[in-house]
Specification:
The complex is a heterodimer of chains A (about 375) and B (about 260). Chain A contains twelve helices and ten strands. With about 375 residues, chain A is an alpha/beta fold. In chain A, strands 4-3-2-5-6-1-7-8-9-10 form a ten-stranded mixed sheet, sandwiched between helices. The chains are: A alpha/beta (about 375), B alpha/beta (about 260).
């Protein structure tokens, strides 16, 4: 599943179509969105560097992490950005997004060391994040610098749409993303958003703008969101390391494909697996005690075979109930209701007779009212 | 005495093994507490650990809640002399009790107070001798009061926190913040709190027990340690939960059920 979305970004836009756009959505209950973003980023980067993708370059717009973080992260995955023939550029909206350093310098007595910019040649510091149009132009410029003009294409990755939404209105952010999708030179675009930081309509706007939406949810929902009990604590612990990964892909023909996977957070990053069965999930919910609280298969079958007293078996016969006085083989109890006969003798009985005069022979028992309808009494 | 009882907290924070290099380097710790369970003891504990005589740590304490004398009294009981530390340039105490951002007058934006504070912190770090500048701990007590000082604008406070965060990457500082969870509980969406939770590498929650008040146990601490640190090449998520009891000179941390 995760591979299919990476492939979709790699293959890029078809002629005359908008660029594929991916929203990665998470929440505090399952905060692995950035892991997924990093995974997609490294996959797309390796496709681009290997020349296997439609786009010839990638612009990473970094709001929530420093450029050096991305350089190191990609290096750990075997992608050396610095020596990669300048296929990846990072627009640094992290180090000084609002131009505070410049304002302090103007006020006097302040020297910004700007180690970030001097450390890496792939970082370009952007200081005006409140203006979406300037941001747009900077990203396009950076992209063109990578691939040149004309029909050459590049991809865009935005690590935090939340920061953009903090600084600018929803409509201007939506406008920017939409413009990227329709730009001739943008091959694909993806971004990360934390859904619980915004109103539902903002998340909806972003989803409408995307052709693919991946969302992360916890595997187990804690009851009431309370953290008080131990039971919930183990659920939280479980959710801290695993989650559910949903993917929704909108196709050109209008069909929507929905898939789900399990995502695990490991030492080296994240891994995906198909969803485990319900039994395995329930295993995690049984409290750990020193006796067995569950049934084995044989015990389950035996339990299903037990005939409960007083319960209809649905085969027309009345139940032979052992009353402790006679053995079941010796006696046969039969209840016969007859409108005309008042007396009945049972020829098979070994010495006793039961003569039963029913008071309400004329009345039919109203099955709706009789709560003992399903019992043989 | 003090060492043993806070071991669980040290263990959860990674402070139990080595002091040098400072395990919280480059990391952001967000403490959330409630009225019934104050989390300031965690702040005091981290401050005390960072001013340990075995290390060359420097702490920058941004106080919006209490004056210096209060922290001096508290830390003295924990065995740490703040006056001496301040005189030795290991503690820089910024008394921000009177911090007030101008209210949107022409020419002066409301964020000016926070920009100036950021500038002050930056200058302090840059002025430190090389060896110390690698182990700076910035402590903010507390964020809700900073929001008040910024005339209720959580956006400016978040901008300030973002710039403090750039200090963690530029200078390997640690950033420790305290905020009150119940202030935001009536809000539809506690955005400010959630933003901080997303930002934090280590999230510490001080909450009352689900079973209510008790004389032996004052509350429970849950420590979520998101180990995403590519510098060390590992990503280890660790979560701990234990109870605590605040005493006169010490805070005892113990696993549920293991005390009295």
């Amino acid at each position: 599943m995760a591979e299919s979305i990476c492939r979709a970004l790699r293959d890029g836009a078809l002629e005359g179509e908008h660029a594929p756009a991916l929203t990665i959505k998470d929440s505090m209950a399952s905060p692995f969105g950035f892991h997924v973003f990093s995974h997609v980023l490294s996959q797309l980067s390796s496709f681009i560097l290997a020349g296997k993708s439609q786009s010839g370059g990638l612009v990473v717009v970094s709001f929530s992490r420093s450029p050096s973080f991305y350089l190191e992260m990609l290096k750990n995955k075997g992608i050396d950005v610095v020596s990669s023939d300048k296929r990846i550029q990072i627009l640094d909206c992290y180090s000084d997004p609002l131009g505070w350093k410049d304002r302090l310098i103007e006020a006097g007595n302040f020297t910004a060391l700007s180690r970030e910019a001097s450390n890496s040649s792939t970082a370009n510091v952007f200081k005006d994040v409140k203006h979406m149009d300037k941001l747009y132009n900077s990203i396009i410029e950076l992209g063109r610098g990578l691939v040149g003009g004309g029909k050459n294409q590049f991809s865009v990755a935005i690590d935090s749409v939340d920061e953009m939404l903090r600084h600018a209105s929803t409509s201007s952010v939506a406008g920017l993303l939409s413009n990227f999708r329709s730009h001739d030179q943008v091959s694909s675009i993806f971004w990360l958003v934390h859904s619980d930081l915004h109103e539902a309509r903002v998340a909806a706007v972003l989803e409408y703008l995307s052709s693919m939406v991946t969302s992360l949810e916890p595997l187990h929902q804690p009851a009431n969101g309370q953290r008080g009990d131990l039971e919930n604590f183990s659920l939280i612990e479980h959710n801290f390391k695993k989650g559910k990964f949903h993917v929704r892909i909108k196709r050109r023909n209008g069909r929507v494909r929905v898939m789900s996977e399990e995502v695990h957070i490991e030492q080296s990053g994240i891994s995906f697996a198909s969803l485990s069965s319900e039994g395995a999930i329930n295993q995690g919910l049984v409290p750990k005690v020193q006796f067995s609280l569950e049934l084995s298969e044989k015990e389950r079958i035996d339990r299903a075979n037990v005939v409960l007293p007083f319960e209809h078996q649905g085969n027309g016969k009345s139940i032979q109930i052992y009353d402790g006085r006679r053995s079941l083989a010796d006696s046969k109890h039969e209840r016969q209701v007859s409108a005309t006969e008042k007396m009945q003798t049972n020829e098979d009985s070994g010495g006793g007779e039961i003569i039963y005069f029913r008071d309400s022979d004329d009345e039919m028992p109203d099955s709706d009212e009789d709560p003992d309808d399903d019992l043989d009494i | 005495m003090n060492q043993r009882s806070s071991n669980l907290l040290d263990e959860a924070l990674g402070l139990d093994q080595t002091i040098e290099p400072w395990p919280l380097r480059g990391r952001i710790v967000a403490i959330e507490d409630q009225v019934e369970t104050s989390g300031s003891f965690v702040l005091h504990h981290i401050l005390k650990r960072s001013l340990s005589p075995n290390s060359s740590n420097v702490s920058i304490f941004i106080a919006l809640s209490q004056p210096f004398s209060h922290y001096d009294r508290v830390l003295r009981k924990l065995g740490c002399n703040l006056v001496t530390q301040r005189d030795n340039n290991r503690l820089f105490f910024f008394d921000m009790l009177m911090l007030q951002c101008p209210g949107g007058d022409e020419g002066i934006s409301p964020e000016c107070g926070l920009i100036a504070l950021y500038g002050k912190i930056y200058k302090t770090i840059v002025a430190l001798p090389e060896v110390s500048s690698k182990n700076v701990t910035i402590i903010i007590d507390d964020l809700s009061l900073m929001e008040v000082a910024a005339n209720g604008s959580s956006d400016y406070v978040l901008d300030f926190l973002h710039y403090c965060r750039t200090l963690t990457t530029e200078f390997d500082c640690s950033l420790i913040t305290l905020n009150h969870e119940d202030i935001y509980s009536s809000a539809d969406r506690p955005t400010f709190l959630l933003q901080m939770e997303y930002l934090a590498d280590i999230l510490i929650k001080a909450e009352p027990l689900a079973t209510g008040l008790a004389s032996d146990v004052h509350g429970q601490l849950t420590v979520l340690n998101k180990g995403m640190n590519y510098r060390q090449g590992s990503s280890r998520n660790k979560i701990s939960n234990f109870h605590f009891k605040v005493k006169e000179n010490v805070v005892e941390c113990f696993y549920p059920g293991s005390q009295g």
